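Database export, one record per block. Field names are fixed; values are copied verbatim from the stored entry.
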Amino acid sequence: MYSRGATNIVAAMRNHRVSRLVCVTSMGVEGKSAPEESLLWRRVIAPILLTMGRTIYADMARMEDIVRGSDLDWTIVRPAGLFDRDTVTSYRAEPRRLVGRFTSRADLADALLREATENRHVHPCIDVVTTGEHTELPPGLGEGGAAHR
């Protein structure tokens, strides 16, 4: 799905002479955690998540290869686990592996818009993680979530 879509989008952009592409995959595509992450995260939790998502991550990796191989001015944005937040909080968007497990959808949207309009990072993959007010528990397991009902 991701790789087929990327192939079609890149072709359409070439045909219409549009050069700027900002797309989203996942921090899971790279298959490794930041060295600063906890041992539990790196050795237990991340491998489980990577195994569960291996088919999607493999297709996202193919998409990234298609985008990288194009002549477009691309930026690949890799968020961590997504959760809902009504407003933009503080977040980091950098072309390196960041420590962080969650990205709010509002922060991701803000990062995408900034990349598309300001051309901050042309040709790298960037990680985006929320650093402001957020939870360390997966969505649905925190206060008021399914685990507390």
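Remark 1: The chain has one domain: 2-140.
Remark 2: Residues 2-140 form a domain with the Rossmann fold fold (CATH 3.40.50.720).
End of record.
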